[in-house]
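User: Good morning. I'm curious how NAP would be positioned relative to this chain. Could you predict the structure with it bound?
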Amino acid sequence: MISFVWAESKNHIIGVNGHLPWKLPNDMKHFKNVTTGHPIVMGRKTYESFPNGPLPNRLNIVISRNPDYKVPESVVLITDKSQLKQYVKPDDEVMVIGGEGIFKLFAGDVDRLYLTEIDHDFAGDTKMVALDYSKFKLIEKKEGVVDDKNIYPYTFKTYQKIN
Ligand SMILES: NC(=O)c1ccc[n+]([C@@H]2O[C@H](COP(=O)([O-])OP(=O)(O)OC[C@H]3O[C@@H](n4cnc5c(N)ncnc54)[C@H](OP(=O)(O)O)[C@@H]3O)[C@@H](O)[C@H]2O)c1
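Assistant: Good morning! Here's the predicted structure, ligand included:
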């Protein structure tokens, strides 16, 4: 099964200058909870945006068109999505974590969406791809806690593809 995991602003921004446009530690915790133990699939630029290298306790799979792109031994490099099945088990929940081109690449395959909706407009250079939400059912919704470290209102939403 393919799932998407991402955070998106009110104006559909997901990134700026190779980083997230906001600081929301509670969303980072949510991302960790949702993805730990599952393979994560990401574009080369998203991989390079991690300050401390590959994310622990998850198989990190990086997509690049450059077959010579260097990754540590624990990380899998693929150059085409057809190679994914060599590295994941049929019953794995494969977490596609962006960015824009990678969401576009898997938009026809996705079964579940883990969206953090941030109720604030941000300036940015990377947008979420348009998804057809009429093909999905909202199965979980939880308001995020706003405090001095998480200053923007946000909601965690989970959608499941309608069969
Ligand atoms: N808000 C969120 O939840 C979220 C999630 C993820 C990322 N982001 C943000 O989004 C930005 C990065 O996203 P991005 O869209 O610019 O880049 P990206 O999708 O992470 O990476 C793009 C790279 O992926 C490779 N690629 C793309 N399509 C491919 C294909 N069909 N086949 C093989 N390789 C392919 C290419 O690598 P090569 O150039 O090496 O060939 C391409 O340059 C950052 O600002 C990041 O912080 C936000």
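The CA atoms of residues 18 and 49 lie 6 Å apart. The chain has one domain: 2-161.
Let me know if you'd like a different ligand tried.
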